[in-house]
């Protein structure tokens, strides 16, 4: 789908009538937005169509309510030797202008696309100055997203006629449009990999997708992949407890986006504790991230022994960690059969990180970011982890696994330990983690938990600007007691109450003190269930807005 800004309306064309009339290749449609008071949006730019629009509103009894439509196919104008191809009109109601939030803009964008995709080559949507910059970006992204299809496995594929979208708006919005296009490309990759079936998308497939990105953007992206032998040497036994039940090897994929400065994970100088790597593993230590100068405030003293302003490393990366369980059977604690096919979406967190990295490469934001994909397949077999097993995580803490279906937190736990070697400004993990989150928030907002007020504020601000909504959830110490185990440092489930909270509490135990961290539970927002089951591509818009804001703040 092509989308562009324009300052002109579509033109009327003439075409000679042949004995066998050819299909017009320049069929165009002008989309006019009308509010609930029958006010025409961008009216000053539509003077040539004013009478025709008003007549259409009158004869159709058009009210302007949200997503109401009426079409004028411009059939008049036939002559003996020529046919005048008048531009078609589509009136779309937007309802109350003060209620044009992301949800309303998405519905309007979908209505426009669905009303025109089968019959015209191009549409021009008259916006004028009706939308603020962030609303414009949301609207453009939603128009593009409406064109997304995943039909590669259908024997018959229907290609839409609509190929070009023009937005009649001010030139100052060009940067917002370019950014929306970058987000769309990343979001589409997220949806593509998440929609793939489990026999196609498994851990090695995710690694291949990341490596393909590195080949496409070699100046920006570096990818390192750790296999099970390397993770075993690192002591990542929580991760391996999930992966060991499957014949598909687990993979930890590290994607280093170097948008501001080069930072390397292959120096061979990283210090490794005895709990992680014992001697003779130079090849492995070469793959460990370099310990960057601490992002924490480092105090310096002057000649008078007075403390000066803390120094921070502006080049330290932000790390995004995605849960990548490419199929979640539940393991030995097997899930019910109903809708188990949707467990292919349990890698939605890693899919969103992969898509965010692609969007970053397209937008070329001046910021350093690491994307970590914690990929495993959770299957029942003779080698699978049993309920009651105890394993040690990379940080040396022991975990009693009471439910093998609480597996996402296990792969994330070891990955969180690993990525802290980058000394990041912030770590944000994202996961389709708990059914309890769906019970709490449904399918509208993702849950966010955080140990840092600044990170939380920045994510909430990005949520408001992008329309990719989140909701702050509690992380009180009192919830931690639900994870106590009589025979290990902790257990991997916390009982029936506050399931989403105790899952976040579990993850918090693998984040070092002073490290800014947030956890996003996207169990209710990563995909739509039912007959039209499909990945949504969230929270790529949220992440991109957050990273864009972070890049401009440095």
Automatic annotation (TrEMBL):
Family to which the UniProt record says this protein belongs: Belongs to the peptidase M17 family.
Binding residue positions for Mn(2+) 1: 328, 405, 407
Stored PANTHER family: CYTOSOL AMINOPEPTIDASE (PTHR11963:SF23), LEUCINE AMINOPEPTIDASE-RELATED (PTHR11963)
Pfam families to which the protein is assigned, alphabetical: Peptidase_M17, Peptidase_M17_N
Residue span, Cytosol aminopeptidase domain: 403-410
Cofactor(s) the record lists: Mn(2+)
Location of the region described as Disordered in the Swiss-Prot/TrEMBL record: 291-315
InterPro entries to which the protein is assigned, alphabetical: Leucine_aapep/pepB, Macro_dom-like, Peptidase_M17_C, Peptidase_M17_leu_NH2_pept, Peptidase_M17_N
Record has Protease as a keyword: yes
Enzyme Commission identifier(s): 3.4.11.1, 3.4.11.10
Keyword Cell wall biogenesis/degradation: no
Full protein name: Probable cytosol aminopeptidase
Origin organism lineage: Bacteria, Pseudomonadati, Pseudomonadota, Gammaproteobacteria, Moraxellales
Physiological role: Presumably involved in the processing and regular turnover of intracellular proteins. Catalyzes the removal of unsubstituted N-terminal amino acids from various peptides.
Protein localization: Cytoplasm
UniProt GO molecular function: aminopeptidase activity
Cofactor binding note of this UniProt entry: Binds 2 manganese ions per subunit.
Catalytic activity annotation: Release of an N-terminal amino acid, preferentially leucine, but not glutamic or aspartic acids; Release of an N-terminal amino acid, Xaa-|-Yaa-, in which Xaa is preferably Leu, but may be other amino acids including Pro although not Arg or Lys, and Yaa may be Pro. Amino acid amides and methyl esters are also readily hydrolyzed, but rates on arylamides are exceedingly low
Keyword tags: Aminopeptidase, Cytoplasm, Hydrolase, Manganese, Metal-binding, Protease
CDD domains: Peptidase_M17 (cd00433)
């Amino acid at each position: 789908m092509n989308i562009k800004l324009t300052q002109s309306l579509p033109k009327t064309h003439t075409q000679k009538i042949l004995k066998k009339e050819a299909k017009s290749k320049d069929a165009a449609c002008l989309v006019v937005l009308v509010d609930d008071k029958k006010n025409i949006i961008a009216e000053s730019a539509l003077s040539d169509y004013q009478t025709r629009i008003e007549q259409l509103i009158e004869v159709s009894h058009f009210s302007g309510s949200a997503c109401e439509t009426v079409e004028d196919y411009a059939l008049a104008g036939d002559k003996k030797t020529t046919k005048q191809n008048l531009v078609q009109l589509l009136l779309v109601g937007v309802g109350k202008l003060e209620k044009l939030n992301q949800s309303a803009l998405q519905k309007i964008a979908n209505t426009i696309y669905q009303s025109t995709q089968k019959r015209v080559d191009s549409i021009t949507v008259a916006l004028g100055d009706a939308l603020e910059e962030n609303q414009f970006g949301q609207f453009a992204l939603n128009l593009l997203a409406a064109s997304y299809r995943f039909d590669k496995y259908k024997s018959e594929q229907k290609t839409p006629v609509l190929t070009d979208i023009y937005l009649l708006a001010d030139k100052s919005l060009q940067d917002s449009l370019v950014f929306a296009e970058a987000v769309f490309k990343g979001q589409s990759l997220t949806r593509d990999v998440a929609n793939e079936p489990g026999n196609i998308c498994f851990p090695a497939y995710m690694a291949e997708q990341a490596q393909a990105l590195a080949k496409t953007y070699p100046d920006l992206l570096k990818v390192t992949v750790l296999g099970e032998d390397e993770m075993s040497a690192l002591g990542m036994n929580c991760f391996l407890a999930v992966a060991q039940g499957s014949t598909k090897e687990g993979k930890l994929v590290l994607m280093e986006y170097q948008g501001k400065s080069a930072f390397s994970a292959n120096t061979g100088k990283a210090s490794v504790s005895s709990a992680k790597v014992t001697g003779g593993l130079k090849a492995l230590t070469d793959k460990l991230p370099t310990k960057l100068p601490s992002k924490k405030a480092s105090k310096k003293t002057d000649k008078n022994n007075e403390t000066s302003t803390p120094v921070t490393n502006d080049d330290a990366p932000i790390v995004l960690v995605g849960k990548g369980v490419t199929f979640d059977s539940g393991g030995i604690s097997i899930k019910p059969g109903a809708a188990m096919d949707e467990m292919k979406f349990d890698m939605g967190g890693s899919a969103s990180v992969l898509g965010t990295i692609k969007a970053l490469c397209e937008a070329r934001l001046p910021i350093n970011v690491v994307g970590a994909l914690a990929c495993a397949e959770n299957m029942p077999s003779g080698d699978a982890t049993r309920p009651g097993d105890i394993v040690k995580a990379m940080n040396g803490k022991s975990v009693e696994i009471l439910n093998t279906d609480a597996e996402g937190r296990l792969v994330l736990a070891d990955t969180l330990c690993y990525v802290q070697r980058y000394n990041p400004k912030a770590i944000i993990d994202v996961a389709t983690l708990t059914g309890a989150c769906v019970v709490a928030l449904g399918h509208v907002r993702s849950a966010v938990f955080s140990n840092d007020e600044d990170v939380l504020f920045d994510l909430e601000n990005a949520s408001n600007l992008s329309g990719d909504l989140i909701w702050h959830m509690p992380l009180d110490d009192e919830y931690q007691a639900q994870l106590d185990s009589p025979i290990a440092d902790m257990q991997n489930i916390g009982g029936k109450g506050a399931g989403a909270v105790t899952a976040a509490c579990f993850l918090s135990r693998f984040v070092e003190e002073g490290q800014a961290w947030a956890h996003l539970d996207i169990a209710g927002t990563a995909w739509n269930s039912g007959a039209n089951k499909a990945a949504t591509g969230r929270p790529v818009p949220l992440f991109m807005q957050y990273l864009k804001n972070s890049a401009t703040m440095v």
